[in-house]
Design a protein that fits this description.
Two copies of one chain form a homodimer. Chain A is α/β, with parallel strands linked by helices. Chain A is built from 15 helices and 18 strands. Chain A is globular and about 65 Å long.
């Protein structure tokens, strides 16, 4: 048995009691948390010991909505509204994606995510096989979904391809799991959505889609489909099966009430929603009504980084001003969104998201000694309001260190950066 | 003569032509920029050469509004509205400040600022002598103002103290300059403000105050003083002399028109304004109408870090969503606010804020090779939307390296952190 003891540290458990333990140890056995307790009280025989002094340990961050390979288009098009950005910049370039590009872009994203303490992510993009291969090679936990646009005449073919993908990545104990990724209610017809819902139920797979990112989208659904977004979800059979809905900026208050009682989660993407001028999601309502609110970076082309601590900070900041209420989203709530709520949103509530015995050993260590983390009146406030990706020193997934002391261990990072840069440079000049 | 050549780098000049030069060199002689040009074309005899490959060089960041020593209260009180935060948490603790505390807190701030590429800052707090001593010892450029609350019966004494301070730090070529810091229109009476304006004109000194941080403040001025904030400024004589006004969240559009023609600058503090739920300043109007809009972090108790790149990112992000306009503040405009507009706001427009021959050598180098900075489709977008303080590798002020390769050189950083932590821990338990 492989044992690691992280000793003499501050443990932010994110458990039901919201325990934050000082001078505590975390014992990892193989791929799971075996014990958490006061320093010196755990059975540490045969364990390799990691000194956790001046560090905090917390559950790995869960990026609940991203398009990892879009790192290739980071900084390619900025300061443009969503529709213009998609139609004149992003989609035309994506049309030139070739075999291997998505793998290269996803590995580049993996390096950045590992460096920022992200241990698990929900990825939606083209070429699900390359996405799954990259997550596997990087050592990260991921829910991977190919995009289903469901454009005729290929609806059946697209759906069959994705069913085959999800079936082949459907081990509930696996690190990488297939999910369905119908793009949105405005791009997928009712037939596709019904097909997805049926197959998702049959396979116990997650459905990951975009929902109500813009007011335009809401108005279009109502005008063209003559029904509300909630009706569209219900008719498709997407209320009784786990759904991860990115954005939810224009979710009506009455719909929040209904969805809070369903296996439905919102992936709040504040950075992207600000940058594309989409708006500000009613996250304080989600929290009040008990709708699962996770956090995502969205793709690097609309963020432009994959720093989940920054996303937590944005979530804690923007709703305060938007609601004229400095308590709208607290630092702890934002950290909960970035960890436990993410686990719930990815349908892994009992598996990851807290440092509790029996949970998978997905965690990060963060340095508490830098000037910007001093003094330490409140460790959670320091992490949410002051820290960033670069303060993460160590990242572990499934009991395996992917980064130690800021060195990425699970793959050749320097080659990944070189390959990502070259792929990106080529992608934007292809004709 | 002391010469440094930063070679083979990307130079973001922030000059009038907005030049961004690839494969360029920057020659520093003593405390100023001697030349900027294509790699290999400058006279580099006797220069110590710094390899700038995979780096960008840009003008040092100017933090146009902070209370540096409030690092001592970082994380002490969060998720509270401004009035409650000030009255129940911050002011009671500040009452226990002792000699040496402000120096310790300011040095801690200096370490953080240098690490994030801030080379110049406008500081307003208690104990101006300690603030000036810390800025001097840290090697930073600073405009230092003691807070004038102007509470009877000490108005005259307070003002005399600050006049003496400004007179003793009034060398226009000096790195550290005294300024007047009347707290705000709602805390300072007309008599204090008139006295400050007169003395500021006589000494050629900057006036640094808080202005219209909250709607409450605006309403109070109108109700209690029976005049608009603009009238109060005009009557005090604060329109014809350089004024640096922090926040300006509730500046009326018609007042923006008037102030744009005066030596008046707003220090936009997006992080603090969000965190204290103060609101969102009309920065797109400032930019459109030509009112100088600089950027500040405010104190670390309401931010909670002093990362000016994060502040630039917030400035580029929040106005997009607030105005439903993805072009509201562009990445370049945000970087301009963090550099050149800051120089103008601190009344140093011809001295710092751009990499142009003759300007003071205040600059930073930023690493472009990290995963989150790859690829490099757009260097300014990468810096504003993806980078953070930790990407800054080197910081120079007045031709002197304060940090090289992430090592702070101008003082003992480790002792500063220890001293800051101990001072902060003591401050919050004093009775």
């Amino acid at each position: 048995m492989n044992k690691t003891l992280i000793s003499n540290t501050t443990v932010i458990t994110m458990n039901d009691a919201a325990d934050i333990l000082e001078a505590a140890d975390v014992l990892v056995e193989d791929n799971h948390i075996a014990a958490v307790g006061p320093t010196g009280t755990l059975n540490e025989r045969d364990a390799s010991v990691v000194d956790g002094r001046d560090r905090a340990v917390l559950p790995g961050l869960v990026n609940a909505h991203t398009h990892a390979a879009m790192t290739l288009l980071r900084g390619y098009a900025d300061d443009l509204p969503l529709t213009e950005w998609l139609e004149t910049k992003i989609w035309p370039r994506e049309a030139f994606l070739r075999e291997g590009d998505v793998y290269a872009g996803t590995m580049l994203a993996a390096a950045e995510m590992i460096r920022g303490g992200t241990t698990c992510y929900a990825d939606m993009y083209f070429s699900s096989a390359e996405m799954a291969a990259a997550a596997t090679d990087a050592g990260l936990r991921a829910s991977v979904s190919g995009v289903l646009l469901g454009i005729l005449p290929s609806i059946d073919e697209d759906l069959r391809r994705e069913i085959a993908f999800v079936e082949s990545w459907n081990d509930p104990d696996g690190r990488v799991t297939g999910a369905f990724g119908p793009h949105s209610l405005y791009t997928c017809g009712a037939e596709v959505l019904r097909g997805v819902a049926e197959e998702a139920k049959r396979l116990g797979a997650l459905v990951h889609l975009h929902l109500l990112e813009t007011a335009h989208e809401r108005d279009d659904i109502v005008a063209l489909q003559e029904r509300t977004p909630l009706h569209a979800l219900r008719e498709a059979g997407l209320l009784e099966t786990p759904v991860l809905a990115a954005h939810c900026v224009y979710l009506a208050e009455r719909d929040v009430d209904v969805l809070a009682g369903q296996p439905f989660a919102a992936a709040h993407c504040p950075g992207s929603n600000l940058k594309l001028a989409s708006g500000i999601a009613p996250v304080p309502d989600f929290l009040k009504k008990g709708l699962t609110a996770a956090l995502g970076t969205d793709g690097a082309a609309s963020n432009n980084n994959l720093d989940m601590l920054e996303e937590a900070r944005l979530a804690a900041l923007i709703h305060k001003a938007n609601r004229s209420d400095a308590t709208a989203v607290t630092a702890y709530q934002a950290l909960f969104m970035a960890t436990r709520a993410g686990a719930t949103a990815l349908n892994q509530a009992g598996t990851i998201g807290q440092l509790t015995p029996g949970y998978k050993a997905d965690l990060l260590l963060i340095n508490l000694t830098a000037p910007h983390m001093t003094p330490q009146h409140n460790v959670v406030a320091n992490i949410v309001y002051s820290a960033g990706a670069s303060d993460v020193t160590d990242t572990m997934v499934d009991g395996r260190w992917l980064m130690r002391d800021r060195e990425v261990l699970s793959f050749n990072e320097s080659e990944t950066i070189t390959k990502g840069a070259a792929t990106a440079a080529d992608l934007v000049i292809r004709t």
